[in-house]
Amino acid sequence: MIWRLLPLATERGAMNMAIDEAVAEGVRDGISPPTVRFYSWSPGAVSIGCFQSAREEVDVDACTRLGVDVIRRRTGGGAVYHDPDGEITYSVIAPEATFGNDIHASYRLICGYIIDALGHLGIPSEFRPINDITVGGKKISGSAQTRRGGVFLQHGTLLLSFDAERMSLLRPSPAKLSARSARGVEDLLTSVRSYRSASRDEVLDALRKGLRPLGEMRDAGLTIEERARANELALSYDDDAWTFFR
Amino acid sequence: MGEGVRKAERKVPGGKLVQMTVGGGKVRLTGDFFLHPEDSLHGLEAFLASLPSDDAASAIAAYAERNGIRMIGLGPEDIAALLAEVRP
Fold it and tell me: Which segments of A162-199 does DSSP mark as H helices, in order?
């Protein structure tokens, strides 16, 4: 299978989610190729899982004060702070048949590629089911998957560094913290630069190597149609009725 | 939901956080779990609101099976346990 690779691009949160969805629609309609995408977020943003309560999971007032976007993903999973400089986000979007019906196995497979990427950086990591990658018991990468219209989409983070103060924008449930004997989000996380200095380009290169078993990758951009559809879809991600609907 | 709202949550061992809020005849599920397809949530919540407490886990499993819903990080028994907790 030949994949399109969308090289790292920086967008605001609503647009990042809209691009993932526009590409997934294109794959569904047979007009977009299977795609691997790397991206980052500016301004910083908190994304929440589609089943979470925004006001319970996020200090929304502080986000507003700091100019941090709050958006609701179409995927489940937990709230994430996406720092403009501290994270590379990836997406893998392809016909569902590419990864089969087993959701747990496909998390393990794709997280395995990210683990290999970390290995290229000299960082030994491991898969923590259901959807995390850890180093020394702390999460360095989390991911979320959806399967709609016969299309598989997994997006996930790789932390380059983290800003403990910004992580305090998240309000994890005490039950979640105590399950991991953590006092705050900072006790749960680690990052590439906690282990070694690494430029963003080095990490991107490692991710490319890690994801190579997927197949041949050809660098390309979004099509005009995908960009136009993403602009349209971004409006729904910007809509408070969606972000705060629960 | 306002007066008479009851809430319970559980971190499923090896799974996800699931919160249930009940009030005004409605059931709301929130948390960092996964449901596939995602838009099955509203139907599931409506089903839970009308579900008797007896043997709820089996009924939820049957509903999920009937509607092609896959739950990741939680199971019918977790939802049933939360229902039992929030119902007076």
Answer: 164-167, 174-179
CA distance B69 to chain A (A): 12
Question: pLDDT tens across B16-65, in order?
Answer: 999 999 999 999 999 999 999 999 999 999 999 999 878 999 999 999 99
CA proximity to B70, closest of B37, B46, B41, B44? B37
Check CB contact under 8 Å for B38 and A246. no
> What's the pLDDT score for residue B87?
85
Q: Rounded mean pLDDT of chain A? A: 96
Chain B residue closest to A151 (CA)?
B37
Q: Which amino acid is at A101?
A: N
- What's the CA dihedral at A105, A107, A113, A114 to 10 degrees? -150
Q: Which residue of B has its CA nearest to A178?
A: B11
Query: Which residue of chain A is at minimal alpha-carbon distance from B74?
Result: A130
Beta partners for residue B29, in sequence order: B20
Residue of A51, A131, A242 to mutate when probing chain B, most B C-beta within 10 A: A51
> Crossing angle for the helix pair B76-86 and B56-66, nearest 10 degrees?
130
- Per-residue pLDDT band for B88 (boundaries 50, 70, 90) equals confident
Residue B1 pLDDT greater than 80, yes or no: no
Residue A129 touches chain B, beta carbons under 8 Å:
yes
Prediction ipTM score: 0.94
Residues of B with CB under 8 A from a CB of A: 9-11, 14-17, 19, 28-38, 41, 70, 72-73
The sheet carrying B17-23 orders its strands as B6-11, B17-23, B26-31
- Classify residue A210 by burial, with Cβ atoms within 10 Å: 0-12, 13-18, 19+: buried
- Sort residue A233 into left (φ over 0), alpha (ψ -120 to 50) or beta: alpha
